[in-house]
Design a protein that fits this description.
Length: about 475
């Protein structure tokens, strides 16, 4: 018997008041986890450690890394992303409801982005305040009236979901600009199949590999040239970017060009790739850097990462950019509050998935409530992501709370607040034993010219590796798990 669980079926740790993904209660395992539990509890600590070492070695050999930036350190730290071997499992019916809710949400968000850059009906009808649009740092007036290839503004998106202690899923935030994590989803499944073939092949789970083909077909569908084999390039900031491994992986897997800004040139309102034997026209640019840096003639004039003249080529209809510039206006954390209203307005439907209760600190009564209960709140800067610019009241010292209080009072419109949610937990392997860690789920969605969202089965489960922590972001030291959807 392994060190993990001296009595299979009994929880090896106290469940407390959190929802546990594997254990229904102290004495029973959820039915969809029984096979996985039996497998891991049947292995010795030595076997598990050997598998963990092999996993780490494979990740090192393949360069599966993520770069951490710590202000306390002079240099960024590149590391293999922590990968836990116990998969997170989602039953078929549960996933079908999640999938329907995510498709509904992305459909409404895409309609919203089109609307605010064209007729702005949602503003005229008083659903979303005009000031929320024009004062948003991600709103791009350059996109007004511009035709986007296929009408698909949000080609790739990552919807972050949590499960509360009530067992319900809630949307935590929408990532619509340059969402990351695709590579960890695909590589995680490959590594699990290699290390535990008897486990993955004996389980009836949805395949994810076909989604790479879907990814490529979605990018192809955006091509303005309508040729059968368009030239597609992935624009990366370069090897020093924290997600560079992912950029290289996706380009290699889809057979598209991996380029930096210096590899491209604008000519006659078209974008060309510089090759040994001349120039080759690019039809679709999947960009992995923010709007500010993609074109120094249109946005940040000192940017060395983008392509001068890219926006002119885009306006002329000679290239598709995924995701479209200006999509960030819809994933601003203050705009998140209005997404349920967008669903009702554009689709005439009730939201399938709920939001986490959110306070807009620009509203005096909500601001005062948050300031009175700061120790019970998570406060976030509306324009930041990756766990930056955030206060978790229950973990913050009085000095940190007081400092944040002054920031809120000085610029309340920059912040939103949410009550601290009890993220569900799942067991991870640590030192040959099972121990609980908080998790969330990033669901990835692809949308092409047909505007029919495809949700990759399972997505990426992110893990707060520090005991008791609620911060799952890779940029803050979080890890990942393979996510299985039962077929």
């Amino acid at each position: 018997m392994s060190k993990l669980d001296p009595q299979p079926g009994l929880s090896p740790y106290p469940l407390q008041h959190f929802y546990d993904e594997m254990y229904a209660d102290e004495r029973s395992i959820r039915s969809h986890y029984k096979h996985v539990n039996r497998m891991f509890t049947g292995m010795s600590s030595e076997e598990l450690q050997s598998k963990q070492n092999l996993m780490q070695r494979r990740m090192m050999e393949e360069g599966i890394t993520f770069t951490l930036y710590n202000p306390a350190q002079d240099q960024p730290m590149e590391r293999t992303i922590p990968f836990d071997m116990i998969p997170r499992i989602i039953p078929k019916g549960e996933w079908e409801r999640l999938e329907a809710g995510i498709v509904q949400r992305i459909t409404a968000l895409n309609l919203f982005i089109h609307d605010i850059y064209h007729e702005q009906y949602i503003v005229k009808d008083g659903i979303v305040p005009r000031r929320m649009i024009v004062s948003n740092c991600y709103f791009r007036p350059e996109m007004a009236g511009l035709r986007v290839p296929g009408g698909a503004y949000v080609t790739t998106s990552g919807i972050d979901l949590i499960r509360h202690h009530d067992g319900e899923y809630y949307v935590l935030e929408d990532n619509l600009r340059t969402p990351s994590g695709f590579s960890y989803l695909f590589k995680g499944r490959t590594l699990m199949n290699q290390l535990f073939p008897e486990l993955s092949f004996a389980s009836s789970i949805r395949d994810v590999d076909h989604s790479l083909n879907r990814f490529l077909s979605v990018l192809r569908s955006l091509s303005p040239s309508r040729i059968s084999d368009p030239v597609i390039a992935l624009l990366t900031p370069g090897e020093y970017n924290s997600a560079y491994y992912e950029h290289a992986f996706l380009a290699q897997q889809m057979g598209i060009h991996l380029v930096e800004g210096r590899d491209l040139v604008a000519k006659d309102h078209k974008i060309y790739l510089k090759e040994m034997n001349g120039l080759r026209r690019v039809d679709v640019l999947y960009r992995r850097l923010d709007d500010d840096f993609i074109d120094p003639l249109a946005f940040q004039p000192n940017s060395l990462l983008g392509v001068a003249g890219l926006m002119n080529a885009y306006r002329a209809g000679n290239i598709a950019i995924a995701n479209a510039p200006g999509t960030g206006v819809a994933d601003d954390k203050a705009m998140y509050v209005y997404v349920p209203d967008m669903i009702r307005y554009y689709l005439n439907e009730e939201p399938i998935l709920g939001n986490v209760p959110t306070y807009l600190l620009s509203r005096p009564e909500e601001r005062q409530h948050v300031l009175d209960h700061l120790q019970e709140m998570v406060v976030k800067e509306t324009s930041l992501s990756g766990g930056y610019g955030m206060l978790i009241g229950s973990e913050a010292s009085k000095e940190e709370q007081d400092s944040f209080r002054l920031k809120i009072l000085a610029e309340p419109e920059r912040y939103i607040a949410q009550p601290i949610m009890s993220l569900s937990r799942a067991p991870v392997l640590s030192g040959g034993a099972m121990t609980p860690r908080h998790i969330d789920l990033r669901a990835f969605v692809l949308m092409g010219a047909d505007r029919k969202p495809h949700v990759i089965p399972g997505g990426l489960t992110r893990v707060a590796m520090r005991e008791g922590s609620l911060v799952v972001n890779s940029s803050q030291g979080g890890g990942v798990k393979d996510t299985w959807v039962m077929a």
